[in-house]
Amino acid sequence: MNELEMQILQIISKAGESKSKAFEAFKKIEDSDYEGARRLLKEAKEIDVEAHKAQTELIRKELSQDGEDKLPVTLLMVHAQDHYMTSQLARDLIEKITDIFESKEVK
């Protein structure tokens, strides 16, 4: 496996880990454990930052190359972007759901 593939797999791995944490948080909401949900969402966000760093490194490499030496866009790279994007979306939505449910319980 080459360096590019390792970086792409890091994005996939970190995004998957982040999304798992977000859905663990969702389960905490069902139990009205909002503190636990927020803790898991914070962990998810920290993991997303690691995926973002790997993504940014790939973007930086692509921008520093010229013409024919550009990084190839592969199905694996597209798959990584999809995982990263959906992990962020899941986390953002679950954060909002946490806010809504917690505010309804406080009233």
Automatic annotation (TrEMBL):
The modification Phosphohistidine is found at H79. Pfam families: PTS_IIA. Keywords: Phosphotransferase system, Sugar transport, Transferase, Transport. This is PTS lactose/cellobiose transporter subunit IIA.
